[in-house]
Amino acid sequence: MAPRAQTFSLQRIIFLSVSVVLCLQVGWWIRLQIRDSGRLLEARTQALQAGRAQAWQMDSLKLLTLLHSQPDPSSPGGTVEGQVPAMPSLAERRKAIQEAFPQVELVPRPMAPDDPFLLDGAAFLTLRPAPLKELEDQRWHAVFRASTEGAFMVFAVLFGFVLLYRKLSEELDLKLRQRNFTSAVTHELKTPIASLRVWTETLFTRELAQEQRQRIRGLMEKDLERLNELVGNLLDVARAESGSLVLHLAPLELGPWLEAVCEGMDHRLGPGALGLKLECSSEPLWVDADPKALSTVVENLLSNAYKYSAEPRQTTVTLDGDGDDALIVVSDQGHGITAKDLPRVFHRFFRVGDEMTRQVAGTGLGLFLVKEIVTRHGGEVRVFSRGPGFGSAFTIRLPRRAIPETP
Ligand code: ADP
């Protein structure tokens, strides 16, 4: 596995493990909350039941006291008038019980299996349903609250983790891309410099025919152009990043300008090497643009079409009007781009990680610059590809302007 993929999968495993542990912790916390609320309910129910037992005791004690005080053997009439209170009625006993224990009531039949009957069997003592229901409601409320809080905690933790994971992945990705970029730039600078040194030595140390000298001069010019292009791209990217990439916008007719840029590139890359076909709308299309910066855009796209296509290349450039916009499409029949890489090709330093692409010289800055420049023109650039082997198409959309009046 590539080191980059390895680092990412290790990072993923760590994040997944930590998330699982946190979810388990929260699950455990919910379980404890539910258990505690169950215990609280049990204790409160027991307190209610203790009240029922106390009510029974109170009533029984009163009855027993009365029973013991009623017969008076020393009195001739059997009872002592004025000393013996009359036996209270059931209604009076109910009132007395309910005043002391509002959660208890007297019923003719038991409502729960353990409901006791009064000492004289006049009625049963039972707990009122309302306080019991209230307790049950409290329990469900506590369970609901614990679950909601737990779910919220899990959500918050996972959300935080996802954000952190994405941030770290981005940082890591950027770091790796930067590392690739450094080695790519070093290679890009060293190759033409080494080649120029060899050609210079050859020119100064050997007797060469005029033809050979001409050929070497052509090769040296290509190397210098390569260096110039690289330094230009690096400078533009630095300017774009620092916000000092200044565009000198002026009315530009796209048709003739595009023809000239394509011709220049065809000449630079070797006549016919691009297999270039240019199709321009006959309608005059004008935009406000910096011709030099916009040329960099098309040149980078054409250079990529050249680099990432095998021979014989087939490159098409079209220019058309689309409502209020002008549309330039640069398409090729080259390597193509996978769906996974499509959204990343405009990222700084990004280069597709397959060997085929890596063998091609590059820094991963070209498309970043393309996007910066097009966006600064108020336009939009997009990429399309049906996948590896099916070529790629880049569309540039620029806002049109009215045809300027000739002075
Ligand atoms: P560079 O070409 O210097 O690597 P770019 O920013 O121009 O950098 O492109 C980024 C990556 O996008 C390239 O490395 C390549 O993998 C991919 N790419 C760009 N243009 C094409 C194309 N026309 N066909 C296939 N892949 C492309």
Rg, rounded, reads 45 Å
Give the H and E element order.
Answer: HHEEHHEHEEHEEHHEE
Given helix and strand content, the structural type is alpha+beta
Strand content: 5-15%
Please tell me what the overall shape is: rod-shaped
Q: Can you tag this structure with a few keywords?
A:
407 residues; alpha+beta; 5-stranded mixed beta sheet; two-stranded antiparallel ribbon; 8 helices; 58% helix; rod-shaped; binds adenosine-5'-diphosphate
Q: In words, what does this structure look like?
A:
The protein has a five-stranded mixed β-sheet. A two-stranded antiparallel ribbon has the order 1-2. The chain has a two-stranded antiparallel ribbon with strand order 3-5. The protein is rod-shaped. β6 (about 315-320) and β7 (about 325-330) form a beta hairpin. The chain contains eight helices and nine strands. With about 400 residues, the protein is α+β, with helices and mostly antiparallel strands. α6 packs antiparallel against α8 (about 365-375). About 60% of the residues lie in helices and about 10% in strands. Bound molecules: adenosine-5'-diphosphate. Adenosine-5'-diphosphate binds next to α6 and α8.
Quick recap of the structure?
The chain has eight helices and nine strands. Strands 4-6-7-9-8 form a five-stranded mixed β-sheet.
